[in-house]
């Protein structure tokens, strides 16, 4: 729609340009044709001539293209004579006849040609209005049947008039005069040619032509024609061309004259009409008429159109030339013939002219008919043109209206687009503003939300803080109240306890007193009853006597008075007894008070005793070594070793005379080896005295210490006798413990005893208290567990017996002795090949002071320490001996490590030391009995054992600590 308004102007503007383009395209061959013409004619057009002139020359040359068959002598140029132009072709006979007036026939035929051209152009434009774009493709043609001068009726009439009234008389006169006076007339008349192109040249610019004639060579070489001449071509196809031009109702002619605008038909009224020379001056019309045939399309409107029509002119020249050439050719031949053979025959020539005139007249009449036809066609075309013009105008108006409407629509669309654009801009601004508002609102909302969140969080924090503070305050308050209540309750409980104790004590005392009173009263009542019974019996007797002696009242009354006096006496004695009872009660209360004071003092003294006793034990050392030498049981045992006990006061030294040593001189000597221990018992010492030494350790166990007493020595040295015999340390210790805990009950101490008996055999633990019959179920393996906190050792899967009586201890020892592994060796038939450990765990609590203590007494009967070589053990016995020696060596290593204060003590190197870990360490008291055989045969083993005991004796393990704790502390810790 937008392009359509501009399409019309563009299209309109394109037409001229297209015409110009066509004209430019045509100009090239035109120039080429001109060149060809210049090469074939003697007239050499100058390069300085303008294009118009060039076209004219070309058109003229096109008409003269034909081979020169006759060489005509060329006279010298005559500048004063405009017809002295040299041509190759023979001179036109007419011109030769005309002599100095050669323009008459040319004007005549020129006018005819011009008229014919205009008619053709008018026909073309009338028949094809607006289709002026194909003149080049279909150039207008001139009918070959018509001479070029027969197209314009006015011109023909004028030509006829001039020919009859003017030219012919002059021609006759001239011919007569020349023929009689000037013999060279022929030569002077010869050059003019009866050719339209030459006449055109002469009429338009004969001055220039004369100027150029001097430059024209006198003789030109003519190239061989590349095609047939126009005359030849005209002679070959005259009928065909004529039929083409005249056949039908003039349609071919219409086709041949297309391209002529309607405006050219009104050339007299057209603004550009003056530019056409044919309508202005005769001379120019002659020239134009001479050019009419080859230049019909010279448009008066524009140069481009003129160029385009010049193309048609060129084409028309090709088609119309044969006719022109034919006519001219005949005339030329005749003139040549006349000039060469006959000479000048004026009458003949006039007759010929007349005959030709007649022919031309006939042709003119035919032309007039054709003109009539053409005029009818022109009228029809004009009407059609007018209709078309009106239609065109209407369409133009409609187009203008539509264009206006379109423009209005465009304006409206443009305004709508502007409005839309403005609305879009407004919408975008509004949207942007809304977006900004929305972002502001969102931002504000976010800020408000953040503020609310902060406030809410602050409030929540504040509430939490207040709530937490309130909770803490409430908790503190409750704790304080609870503490107060607890303290109050504790005080009340204490008071209640004290009160209850006091009341209970008072009640007990009162109960005892009441019991005693009741007992006394009962006895008194019994006495009184007996007295009463006796008195009653006596009274009965007396009554009987009264009855008997009723007779004797006086005597009986006296006796009755005496009895009454006696009763009164008895009543007074009961009162005295009551007073005595009260006095006794007072004394009892006093005695109880004194006894309580004594008991409290005793408890206090017991605590002090334990402290002092522990200090005493510490001063004596936590590991003590005592030596006991058994007596010779029977002289048959062998020679007695020389063992002496030099220190009789302290009994801490033993001298052993070593084996004989033979010196290098052969003397045999025996060294006395002195050994010193904490106590040395000679063979005479009994178990009772030995227990007196270890009873302190047993007391330490009761006080809450871990105590380990083990016997070390070779086989048969009396270990089992000392430890597990019926009066050995274990029974005595248990008896002592029972006696002690019984006494401690008065001091508010109560104990529970548990005992277990295990055996270490070949580095394996065995329960000696396990039942012999286990119903085939294999016994579980014993495992050692240590309590790092309580410093206590327990053996899993080991039977523990509650020892609540001495009888149970005896039964336990019997069972253990029965279960102990015993194997016969060569050294001792009943030698124990295992370590037996009796574990007595004691837990005591003092109800008065709240004290609690937990101690363990370990009584260990070690296996024999004899050497392998000496024992001569083999097989399983050797393995047993190796295990025994290993465990004993580990025991020595542990004691040595404890004495050195080594950070690592190798308890786990043997089952024995692992089991006795907390009984050999810092929180323990250890006593080792080194048992010595009195026999000389056992001297080396005796010395070895004594040396090992000395090594242990020289070890200071450290300070033992009691596990005794306050009961209250335990409760708090729990
Ligand atoms: N002081 C003593 N008074 C009387 N007899 C004793 C004394 N010491 C040991 N005997 C007796 O000596 C013998 C061997 O004693 P015992 O069995 O106690 O030795 P042992 O070192 O335990 O041997 P083993 O290592 O094989 O058990 C026993 O018959 C025992 O009665």
From TrEMBL:
ATP binds at residues 713-720. GO terms for biological process: microtubule-based movement; mitotic spindle assembly. Residues 34-49, 123-134, 205-221 have a biased composition (Polar residues). SMART domains: KISc. Keywords: ATP-binding, Coiled coil, Cytoplasm, Cytoskeleton, Microtubule, Motor protein, Nucleotide-binding. Residues 371-615 form a coiled coil. It is found in: Cytoplasm, Cytoskeleton. The keyword Cytoplasm applies. Pfam families: Kinesin. Residues 622-955 form the Kinesin motor domain. GO terms for molecular function: ATP binding; microtubule binding; minus-end-directed microtubule motor activity. It comes from the Eukaryota. Its main location: cytoplasm. InterPro entries: Kinesin-like_fam, Kinesin_motor_CS, Kinesin_motor_dom, Kinesin_motor_dom_sf, P-loop_NTPase. Residues 1-24, 306-321 have a biased composition (Low complexity). Residues 224-239 have a biased composition (Basic and acidic residues). Residues 1-55, 123-150, 203-255, 268-327 are annotated as: Disordered. GO terms for cellular component: microtubule. Belongs to the TRAFAC class myosin-kinesin ATPase superfamily. Kinesin family. KIN-14 subfamily. This is Kinesin-like protein. It comes from Chaetomium thermophilum (strain DSM 1495 / CBS 144.50 / IMI 039719).
């Amino acid at each position: 729609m937008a392009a359509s308004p501009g399409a019309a102007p563009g299209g309109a503007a394109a037409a001229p340009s297209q015409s110009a383009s066509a004209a430019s395209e045509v100009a090239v061959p035109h120039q080429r044709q001109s060149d060809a013409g210049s090469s074939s004619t003697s007239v050499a057009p100058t390069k300085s001539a303008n294009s118009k002139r060039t076209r004219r020359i070309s058109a003229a040359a096109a008409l003269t293209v034909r081979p020169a068959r006759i060489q005509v002598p060329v006279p010298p140029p005559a500048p004063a004579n405009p017809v002295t132009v040299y041509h190759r072709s023979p001179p036109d006979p007419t011109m030769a006849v005309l002599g100095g007036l050669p323009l008459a026939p040319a004007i005549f035929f020129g006018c005819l040609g011009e008229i014919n051209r205009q008619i053709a152009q008018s026909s073309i434009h009338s028949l094809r209005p607006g289709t002026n774009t194909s003149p080049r493709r279909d150039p207008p043609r001139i009918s070959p049947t018509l001479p070029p001068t027969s197209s314009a009726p006015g011109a023909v009439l004028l030509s006829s008039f001039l020919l009859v009234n003017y030219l012919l008389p002059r021609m006759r006169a001239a011919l007569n005069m020349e023929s009689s006076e000037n013999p060279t007339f022929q030569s002077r008349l010869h050059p003019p040619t009866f050719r339209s192109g030459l006449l055109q040249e002469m009429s338009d610019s004969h001055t220039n032509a004369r100027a150029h004639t001097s430059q024209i060579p006198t003789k030109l070489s003519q190239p061989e024609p590349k095609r047939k001449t126009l005359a030849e071509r005209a002679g070959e196809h005259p009928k065909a061309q004529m039929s083409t031009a005249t056949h039908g109702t003039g349609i071919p002619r219409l086709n041949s004259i297309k391209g002529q605008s309607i405006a050219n038909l009104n050339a007299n009224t057209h603004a550009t009409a003056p530019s056409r020379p044919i309508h202005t001056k005769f001379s120019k019309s002659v020239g134009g008429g001479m050019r009419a045939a080859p230049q019909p399309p010279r448009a008066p409107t524009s140069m481009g159109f003129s160029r385009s029509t010049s193309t048609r002119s060129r084409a028309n020249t090709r088609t119309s030339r044969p006719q022109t050439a034919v006519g001219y050719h005949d005339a030329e031949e005749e003139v040549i013939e006349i000039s060469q053979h006959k000479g000048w025959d004026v009458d003949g020539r006039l007759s010929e002219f007349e005959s030709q005139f007649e022919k031309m007249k006939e042709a003119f009449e035919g032309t007039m008919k054709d003109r009539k036809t053409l005029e009818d066609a022109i009228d029809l075309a004009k009407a059609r043109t007018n209709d078309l013009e009106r239609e065109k105008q209407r369409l133009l108006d409609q187009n203008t209206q539509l264009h206006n409407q379109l423009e209005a629509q465009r304006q409206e669309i443009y305004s709508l687009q502007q409005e839309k654009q403005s609305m879009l801009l407004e919408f975008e601004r509004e949207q942007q503003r809304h977006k900004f508002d929305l972002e502001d609102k969102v931002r504000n909302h976010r800020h408000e939300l953040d503020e609310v969140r902060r406030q809410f969080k602050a409030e929540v924090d504040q509430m939490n803080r207040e709530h937490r503070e309130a909770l803490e305050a409430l908790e503190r308050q409750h704790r304080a109240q609870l503490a107060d209540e607890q303290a109050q309750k504790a005080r009340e409980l204490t008071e209640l306890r004290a009160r209850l104790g006091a009341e209970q004590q008072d009640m007990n005392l009162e109960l005892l007193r009441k019991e005693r009173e009741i007992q006394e009263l009962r006895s008194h009542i019994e006495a009184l009853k007996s007295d009463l019974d006796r008195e009653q019996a006596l009274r009965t007797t007396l009554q009987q006597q009264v009855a008997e002696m009723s007779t004797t009242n006086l005597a009986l009354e006296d006796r009755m008075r005496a009895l009454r006096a006696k009763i009164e006496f008895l009543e007074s004695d009961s009162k005295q007894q009551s007073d005595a009872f009260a006095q006794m009660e007072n004394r009892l209360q006093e005695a109880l008070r004194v006894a309580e004071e004594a008991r409290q003092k005793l408890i206090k003294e017991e605590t002090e005793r334990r402290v002092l006793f522990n200090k005493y034990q510490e001063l004596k050392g936590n590991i003590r070594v005592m030596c006991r030498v058994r007596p010779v049981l029977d002289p048959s045992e062998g020679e007695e070793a020389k063992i002496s006990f030099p220190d009789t006061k302290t009994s801490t030294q033993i001298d052993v005379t070593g084996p004989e040593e033979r010196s290098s001189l052969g003397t045999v000597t025996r060294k006395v080896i002195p050994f010193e221990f904490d106590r040395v018992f000679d063979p005479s010492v009994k178990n009772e005295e030995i227990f007196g030494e270890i009873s302190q350790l047993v007391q330490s166990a009761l006080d809450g210490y871990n105590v380990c007493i083990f016997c070390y020595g070779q086989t048969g040295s009396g270990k089992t006798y000392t430890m597990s015999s019926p009066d050995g340390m274990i029974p005595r210790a248990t008896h002592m413990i029972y006696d002690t805990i019984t006494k401690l009950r008065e001091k508010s101490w109560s104990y529970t005893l548990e005992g277990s008996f295990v055996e270490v055999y070949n580095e394996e633990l065995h329960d000696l208290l396990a039942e012999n019959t286990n119903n085939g179920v294999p016994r579980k393996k014993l495992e050692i567990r240590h309590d790092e906190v309580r410093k206590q050792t327990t053996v899993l899967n080991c039977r523990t017996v509650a020892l609540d009586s001495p009888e149970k201890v005896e039964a336990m020892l019997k069972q253990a002795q029965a279960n102990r592994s015993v194997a016969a060796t060569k050294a001792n038939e009943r030698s124990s090949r295992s370590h037996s450990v009796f574990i007595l765990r004691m837990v005591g609590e003092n109800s008065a002071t709240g004290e609690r203590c937990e101690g363990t007494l370990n009584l260990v009967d070690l296996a024999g320490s004899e050497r392998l070589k000496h024992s001569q053990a083999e097989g399983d016995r050797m393995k047993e001996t190796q295990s025994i020696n290993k465990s004993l060596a580990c025991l020595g290593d542990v004691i040595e490590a404890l004495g050195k204060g080594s950070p690592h003590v190798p308890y786990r190197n043997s089952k024995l030391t692992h089991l006795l870990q907390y009984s050999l360490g810092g929180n323990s008291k250890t006593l080792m009995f080194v048992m010595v055989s009195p026999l000389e045969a056992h001297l080396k083993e005796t010395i070895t054992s004594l040396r090992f005991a000395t090594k242990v004796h020289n070890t200071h393990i450290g300070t033992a600590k009691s596990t005794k704790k306050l009961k209250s502390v335990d409760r708090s810790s729990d």
